[in-house]
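Saturday, quiet lab. Running sequence design on the structure tokens for the scaffold JK sent over.
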């Protein structure tokens, strides 16, 4: 019996309520709409189920990959021969809690979309999350990479993060212990499963908040190729430069490999024009990096996470 057959038996025996999917196509779970099957996917709906999933996997020596909305992920065409954990059920819900009369905090499950979180804040006249309205990922994924846009980052409004250690132990991390940097945090190593995050927001005017969100949404529609599958910005911003400008200056706008293309609308995006494979996308990313390095001396670092390569 291999380790995954043994783990399946453990799940069926010890945690029969867990939703399990063998050989789950990852193209269903990534914004690129590509990717082969994951050997096993577990979808815990409660914190208790998540703790079982982690503790049973840990006992078998298996390290899970934690999946959010798959908006910053490229999975190999061959798939991923491991365990994927994706939150479901009540772990996708958000709630607002009055901590003190003068200090309201919005607490969201890790599976909540950042757009839903921003709308929830607006609906409660809380300001500080307007920038997140157009970020396509989840709260958990956003915390892991300290997601940001238009001058805002989650670390600016984060109060605390609740996560599970690899053995299933629950732990709360104040924002000061999250080690945030540009597109990184202490959770970037993928060892801990984020359950929820608390955001310290300020009272604001409903109409002002809505106007800011509408303005940012219009700017995204105008400048970004939202009509095509992609993972958003493909490369991190190099210090002192802008990745999109470097790529465009190197004549790479519109460059393609198979069904993958450097967007003609925004050179910072590699898009799936239709029928692209993961191999097409990674080959195009390599071509862009090599060309920019050769012509400018600047090394572009992928913002997209690769899995199964």
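Result came back. Writing it out in full:
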């Amino acid at each position: 019996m291999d380790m995954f057959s043994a783990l399946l038996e453990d799940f069926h025996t010890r945690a029969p309520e867990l939703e399990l999917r063998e050989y789950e196509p990852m193209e269903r779970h990534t914004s690129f709409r590509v990717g082969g099957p994951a050997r096993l996917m577990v979808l815990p709906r409660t914190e208790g189920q998540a703790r079982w999933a982690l503790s049973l996997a840990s006992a078998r020596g298996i390290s899970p990959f934690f999946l959010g909305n798959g908006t910053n992920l490229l999975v190999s065409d061959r798939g991923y021969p491991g365990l994927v954990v994706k939150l479901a059920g009540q772990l996708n819900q958000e709630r607002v809690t009055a901590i003190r009369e003068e200090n309201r905090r919005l607490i969201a499950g890790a599976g909540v979309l950042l757009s839903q979180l921003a709308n929830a804040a607006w609906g409660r006249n809380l300001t500080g999350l307007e920038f997140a309205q157009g970020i396509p990922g989840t709260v958990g994924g956003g915390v892991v990479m300290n997601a940001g846009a238009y001058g805002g980052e989650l670390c600016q409004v984060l109060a605390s993060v609740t996560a599970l250690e690899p053995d299933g132990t629950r732990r709360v991390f104040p924002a000061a212990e999250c080690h945030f940097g540009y597109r990184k945090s202490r959770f970037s190593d993928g060892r801990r499963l984020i359950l929820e995050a608390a955001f310290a927001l300020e009272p604001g005017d409903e109409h002002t908040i809505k106007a800011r969100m509408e303005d940012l949404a219009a700017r995204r529609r105008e400048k970004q190729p939202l009509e095509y599958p992609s993972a958003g910005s493909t490369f991190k911003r190099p210090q002192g430069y802008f990745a999109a400008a470097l790529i465009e200056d190197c004549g790479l706008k519109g460059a393609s490999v198979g069904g993958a293309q450097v967007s003609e609308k925004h050179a910072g995006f590699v898009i799936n024009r239709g029928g692209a494979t993961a191999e097409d996308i990674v080959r195009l990313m390599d071509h862009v990096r090599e060309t920019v390095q050769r012509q400018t001396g600047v090394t572009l670092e992928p913002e997209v996470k690769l899995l199964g390569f």
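Notes for JK: Confidence is low (pLDDT under 50) at residues 98-102. The radius of gyration is 20 Å. Ask whether to fix the surface positions before the next round.
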